[in-house]
């Protein structure tokens, strides 16, 4: 009898005001659902979100992670002066993205190799940026074979629009909730044209990573393509 293929290794990129540890806890059900197919490896964003800055976050960000602890982190700030992030905030410049790209590069070097990448919320918005850098031959280390984007969106920052110039060829699964009040489904749908042939999984809930039995087959069918 042929042995089962080894699980795929997936780098996990948490949301704003989370960290690798808290996101690992929140993806416990997903890890259980995918245990035969994928090993999820969680990393921290390099930027700490100060308590005062968190208090100034937009109301919807308060819902983003009610359990955020003293080690709240983010991948970039949309408000350069206040060092806060709001997915809807339009700005010309951001703060911190280069350090986050370096942090992911270090994670790939120290913890990889990885077959794929999974991002949630702000982390899901970072994923297409990383994939774009690889596709543009700027980051050869980001050789991910697939991407899972949960509650993703296009960055509203003007300097980030270069990441959406060409559709990404990496196979992708986009997951979002129809009742998400933090990143509405419409924002997640706006990201879809940035990928070629994106696969979509919607769920009736809000801002979280779904892992019910009803979602098992979609996840499994997507991952089996790479085992």
Question: Which helices and strands appear, and what pairs or packs with what?
Answer:
Blueprint lengths: L7 E6 L6 H7 L1 H6 L4 E6 L3 E2 L2 H5 L3 H6 L8 E2 L22 H15 L4 E5 L1 H14 L10 E5 L21 E6 L7 H7 L7 E5 L9 H12 L3
Parallel strand pairs: 1-2, 1-5, 5-6, 6-7, 7-8
Antiparallel strand pairs: 3-4
Give the number of helices. 8
- Classified by CATH, the class is Alpha Beta
Q: Tell me the strand order in the biggest sheet.
A: 2-1-5-6-7-8
Q: Quick one: biggest sheet?
A: 6 strands, parallel
Q: What structural category characterises the helix and strand content?
A: alpha/beta
CATH topology: Rossmann fold
The CATH architecture comes to 3-Layer(aba) Sandwich
- How much of the polypeptide forms β-strand, as a percent range? 15-25%
What pattern of helices and strands is seen along the backbone? EHHEEHHEHEHEEHEH
Can you say what the CATH homologous superfamily is?
Alpha/Beta hydrolase fold, catalytic domain
Mean pLDDT reading: 91
The total strand number stands at 8
What's the alpha carbon Rg, rounded to whole Å? 16 Å
Q: How much helix, percentage-wise, in residues?
A: 25-40%
The separation of the N and C termini measures: 17 Å
Shape summary = globular
Total individual domains = 1
- List segments where confidence is low: pLDDT < 50 over at least 5 consecutive residues: 55-68
């Amino acid at each position: 009898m042929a042995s089962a293929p080894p699980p795929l290794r997936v780098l996990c990129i948490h949301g704003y005001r989370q960290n690798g540890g808290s996101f690992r806890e929140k993806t416990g059900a997903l890890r259980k659902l995918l245990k035969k197919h994928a090993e999820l490896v969680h990393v921290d964003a390099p930027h700490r979100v100060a308590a005062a800055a968190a208090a100034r976050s937009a109301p919807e960000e308060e819902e983003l992670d009610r359990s955020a602890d003293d080690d709240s982190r983010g991948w970039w700030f949309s408000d350069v002066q206040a060092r806060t992030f709001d997915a809807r905030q339009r700005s010309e410049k951001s703060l911190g993205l280069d350090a986050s790209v370096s942090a992911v590069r270090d994670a790939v070097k120290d913890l990889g190799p990885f077959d794929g990448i999974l991002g949630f919320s702000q982390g899901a918005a970072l994923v297409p940026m990383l994939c774009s850098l690889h596709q543009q031959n700027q980051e050869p280390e980001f050789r991910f074979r697939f991407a899972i984007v949960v509650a993703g969106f296009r960055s509203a920052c003007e300097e980030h629009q270069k990441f959406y110039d060409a559709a990404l060829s990496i196979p992708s699964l986009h997951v979002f909730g129809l009742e998400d009040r933090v990143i509405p489904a419409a924002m997640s749908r706006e990201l879809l044209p940035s990928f070629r042939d994106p696969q979509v999984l919607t769920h009736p809930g809000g801002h979280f990573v779904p892992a019910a039995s009803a979602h098992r087959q979609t996840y499994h069918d997507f991952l089996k393509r790479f085992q």
